[in-house]
Amino acid sequence: MHQAKEYYEKMVDFKQYAKVMLAISAFFYLGVLLPTIDKSQVEVIMMMIITTVFLVGAVFFLMRSKSYYKKLLETEEGQDFLIKK
After folding, report:
1. Residues 14, 65: contact at Cβ < 8 Å?
2. How far apart, in whole angstroms, are the C-alpha atoms of residue 1 and residue 7?
3. CB 52 within 8 A of CB 2
4. Which residues contact 29 (CB under 8 A, 6 or more apart)?
């Protein structure tokens, strides 16, 4: 039961990390789109690179979360833990 709880907590944490990274990438992308100040080409490219890095990070964390979800489904106590939560 202790391992199932640990997997569940990691699954939830990785989902939260992905959500945060997705939100940050959205703000950087909005910074590229909104014409509030004059931005040089280098600044725009840097913001797009940062946006891409955060999006890749979000996908990575979602994949990690899914792997822990699959580990929970493989065990009977993990399935019971998912049903209770």
Report:
1. yes
2. 10
3. no
4. 47, 48, 51
CA distance 65 to 82: 14
SS (H, E, C) the chain: CHHHHHHHHHHHHHHHHHHHHHHHHHHHHHHHHCCCCCCCHHHHHHHHHHHHHHHHHHHHHHHHHHHHHHHHHHCHHHHHHHHHC
pLDDT digits (tens, 9 = 90+) for 1-48: 688 888 889 999 999 999 999 999 999 898 888 877 777 888 888 989
pTM for this prediction? 0.82
